Amino acid sequence: xxxxxxxxxxxxxxxxxxxxxxxxxxxxxxxxxxxxxxxxxxxxxxxxxxxxxxxxxxxxxxxxxxxxxxxxxxxxxxxxxxxxxxxxxxxxxxxxxxxxxxxxxxxxxxxxxxxxxxxxxxxxxxxxxxxxxxxxxxxxxxxxxxxxxxxxxxxxxxxxxxxxxxxxxxxxxxxxxxxxxxxxxxxxxxxxxxxxxxxxxxxxxxxxxxxxxxxxxxxxxxxxxxxxxxxxxxxxxxxxxxxxxxxxxxxxxxxxxxxxxxxxxxxxxxxxxxxxxxxxxxxxxxxxxxxxxxxxxxxxxxxxxxxxxxxxxxxxxxxxxxxxxxxxxxxxxxxxxxxxxxxxxxxxxxxxxxxxxxxx
Length: 360
Hints:
By secondary structure, the protein is an alpha+beta fold. It has 2 domains: 3-61 and 100-228, Alpha-Beta Complex (Spore Coat Polysaccharide Biosynthesis Protein SpsA, Chain A), CATH 3.90.550; 66-97 and 242-359, Immunoglobulin-like, CATH 2.60.40. The protein contains 12 helices and 17 strands. It is elongated.
């Protein structure tokens, strides 16, 4: 069986470049072929030791609600999982997830699969680059292939700190006509294309959409310690780190809609959970009509384990379209993380919106 290892990498520092080069040398010493896919230029030492190097310049980061809601609200299906928060006697359900680097990673990953298919490869393992390759890596790969016989693919089940069910860190899969037919034939680095095929999805959800119906062998995430050694993978917290995207995912800062109520159908809910990495969060909201006229402004600070709700039905009484602009700042020690967003709330689409952001 012709097998290759795909390593997804963004070696922007000298330390990352050295770690990637050491891992490549170890893998190549076992006789396995390696393809490195990257959105960052790599030096000649890295390129020379790989069998194949795929570089894609497009690397836009999408994580805001507007990246999904302002594209194709009508076409969104419920994702694999949802976030819900209890505030007082109400439950707020949020079925939006973070797209993040998913469009860029998915584009490069699927291009890698097509490339290997055209080169005659029958199986591949995919990894992110923040690991230390063990000396017996080829033996462990063979053990995985042996125990997953009779299954098309091998997955690692996620730990709670990851963002979905399957870890993007290590999985193996067959490359054949059946798989190739499942891959969209378009440029998925464009978020508009990505949302058409994988609406409201992060990268792990893409894996579920493509491979979820296959016969998969699934290991617990603790298997990563057995493969790489304890503390030898996810070295730089590439999956779950601090920053604006994490601030966006941990707090709640949205309008929730319940059209089943006769009044109080629109509720702004702000929440900073007890485990938020920021000790204080500043919220700044502006609600404007289509002409830019200010309808309402809300500004306040919340600390961990605090929340705020306000019914804002009066904004929507005489407006067909309301534009909600928000600026959020999180304070963590001496560091400040922030993000801004603008979401268009149209009355004719509010039924679909209420399915994604609902309170009961």
